[in-house]
Amino acid sequence: MKRILEEYGDKVRFVIKQYPYKYRDFAFISAEAALAAGDQGKYWEMHWLLHEKFPRLDKASLISYADELGLDMNKFRKDLDGMRHIKKINEDVQLAKDLDLYSTPAFFINGIKAVGNRPFESFKAIIDGELERLSHKEAEVQR
Predict the structure, then answer these.
(1) Residue 25 has what pLDDT?
(2) 95-99: which pairs have CB atoms within 8 A and are 24 or more residues apart?
(3) d(Cα 132, Cα 72) in Å, to the nearest integer?
(4) Which of 22, 62, 86, 94 sits between 20 and 30 A of 130, alpha carbons compared?
């Protein structure tokens, strides 16, 4: 995803939803950690760090990652312990169910569903096709 964001800049909008897999250890607390970091302006930094450090996602590791990112540790621990974002996480889980998602990662590009890890070129083909389609549509409107 980093490469897509770097290549396309403001031509794309990337929205992430939490879908912690119920059978994966530490999934919910990791989602909470990312959102708690986001409250302090470090969502993406925590997001990428969690992917980099996987599978070390136990509570002690999450706290050390927050410290590494320079977060307010009292606030972070309080959010993590209180599962401050559990309502949002549960809403995202329900959305995934409503969209009939059964696996992560899953991506929607202008409504086109792409499930699973994919090479950059796969995303590039979809995005380029959608940008082209939208530019033709915009040109028709201007006529």
Answers:
(1) 75
(2) 95/17, 96/17, 96/19
(3) 44
(4) 94
SS3 6: helix
The rounded percent of the chain whose pLDDT value lies above 70 is 97
Residue 63's contacts (CB-CB under 8 Å, 6 or more residues apart) are 73, 76, 77, 80
pLDDT at 143: 67
Whole-angstrom distance, CA of residue 43 vs CA of residue 131 = 27
CB of 76 closer than 8 Å to CB of 36: yes
Which amino acid is located at 139 in the chain?
A: A
CA 93 to each of CA 55, 131, 135: distance values in angstroms, whole numbers, following the listed order: 21, 29, 34
Q: What domains, with CATH codes, occur in the chain?
A: 2-103 (3.40.30.10), 105-143 (no CATH)
Residues in the chain: 143
